[in-house]
Amino acid sequence: MFGRRHDSQPGASKTPPPPPAPKAQAGASVQSATPKPNPKAKPAADLPSQAPARGAGSDARKSPEYYTIKSTIFNALIDTIDLTQLAQLDTESAREEIRDIVSEIISIKNVVMSIAEQEGLLQDICNDVLGYGPLEPLLARDDISDIMVNGAGTTFIEVGGKVEETSIRFRDNSQLLNICQRIVSQVGRRVDEASPICDARLPDGSRVNVIAPPLAIDGAALTIRKFRKDKLTMQDLVGFDSITQDGATILGIVGNVRCNVLISGGTGSGKTTLLNCMTGFIDLDERVITCEDAAELQLQQPHVVRLETRPPNLEGTGEITMRDLVKNCLRMRPERIIVGEVRGPEAFDLLQAMNTGHDGSMGTLHANSPREALSRLEAMITMGGYALPSRTIREMIVGSIDIIIQAARLRDGSRRITHITEVLGTEGEVITTQDLFLYDIEGEDENGRLLGRHKSTGIARPAFWDKAKYYNKHRELAEALDQAQG
After folding, report:
1. Which residues does 415 contact at the CB level (< 8 Å), separation at least 6?
2. Would strands 450-456 and 155-159 be described as parallel, antiparallel, or unpaired?
3. Model-level pTM?
4. Which tens digits make up the pLDDT trace of 44-68?
5. Which residues, including other chains, have CB under 8 Å from residue 46's CB and lie 6 or more apart?
């Protein structure tokens, strides 16, 4: 029968390790000559019975009894099913095949379950074989921004800026590591003892980091920065009170008139989300090239080339760094270069690109203020081994960066754009800047939510006024600045 082994039965004594993900993706089809599995066919009945599965319900997922029963049925399924044949089915057909066989195994083993408990078990096993196991229900939720797995027995999520523990757990550390390997293998990467640290991404663009034993002592540590299914816009940020309408208008003009933008912020402050929103103001006829460690930007323009770094292979060769990508961009006739995150010597190449006709380029980096962002940028260039005087580096920064946008995650979990700052020039050895927009914290309410407001600093004619005038956006800019002052 298609999808089942002919040389084994449910409940056989062998207990092979969990299978790799089937190669087939949703949408694959089976040849018409292939017979459909017969759900009526019964496996052999000479199997020991099992005690009632009192802990199988979703409210008792932490029960050891549930995991014992699930492991027994899972191993019987692996002995029965033919994974090679299963991989030829589309996702929905493969799920139906698995559900049919698991239902038969439950019946043969006399496992007593309610309909809800059996449905939960069927769903869990389908997720184990075809998806990401216990992570599937968390990945399906759009209100979760981060998933943090600290070994098989502990999983945290971030919802609304607050971290909370969940009841999700894995069968053991082997299952967790197997799922981590399944995730990273989809983008041609690996995680094992020889290469225990890995950055990857899910098909929807969610960012993934894995650190495996022996570096992670209590089992693999998996961190997923989830992306929303619906791409956020600048108007969404206005709705979240991350920026005012006037501030959003100014940022829209900044993006549209091809200012070179650096987005600064701490971990989890919303830098990538803000960068995505800023790219929404790029004209549709511009050629945009993105460079990222793990491709996660969601540009909507039709002319976008997405590039991604590559780690070294088992022999330690073949690595493609961010700097390699940025340097290669210059040979690809880009109009804008977007760097997902500036972390090292590629900062020099990005500044060179910004200073040689690629106006409107953007990038992010980790820093807690605009002034600190400039210092970090200078330090990154120095890290690249360039024997340049500090004054020369600072003049290069001033000639390249027009605007620094500072994002912050406040202590109540909310995210705010706290600075819109212009880079003006140098006075002696010091880079001079001026703030156009600031966010002031004024207190907190009875629920602990911080209260504050965005306000203009009163600059009526910013340094990028001439660019705005060139693109006929100066009147709109003047109106937004005027309203912000009021």
Report:
1. 161, 240, 242, 269, 270, 407, 408, 409
2. unpaired
3. 0.74
4. 333 333 433 333 333 334 466 777 7
5. none
| Residue 255 pLDDT grade (very low, low, confident, very high; cuts 50, 70, 90) | very high
| Residue 192 amino acid letter | D
Q: Transcribe 332-379 into DSSP letters.
A: S--SEEEES---STHHHHHHHHHTTT-TT-EEEEE-SSHHHHHHHHHH
Predicted confidence at residue 12, as pLDDT, reads 44
* Helix or strand holding residue 433 (H, E): strand 430-444
> Could you give all domains of the chain from N- to C-terminal order, each with its CATH number?
1-131 (no CATH), 137-225 (3.30.450.370), 234-485 (3.40.50.300)
**Would you say residue 235 has pLDDT above 90?**
yes
pLDDT per residue as tens digits for the range 313-369: 777 788 899 989 998 988 999 999 999 889 888 898 889 888 888 899 999 999 999
Q: Could you tell me the CA-to-CA distances from 53 to 12, 98, 142, 421 in Å, in that order? A: 20, 20, 31, 61
Output 180-184 pairs: Cβ under 8 A, ≥24 positions apart.
180/210, 180/212, 180/220, 180/222, 181/20, 182/20, 182/21, 182/132, 183/132, 183/208, 183/210, 183/222, 184/208, 184/210
**Cα 295 off chain centre by:** 9
Q: 107-135: string of b/e by CB count within 10 Å (b at 16+)? A: ebbebebeeebbebbbbbbbbbbbbbbbb
Residue the block writes with tokens 């909310």: 414
- Lookup: tokens for 390: 């500090």
The tokens 């600045």 sit on which residue? 481
Are the C-beta atoms of residues 290 and 338 closer than 8 Å to each other?
yes
pLDDT at res. 122: 81
pLDDT in tens, 402-423: 999 999 999 888 899 999 999 9
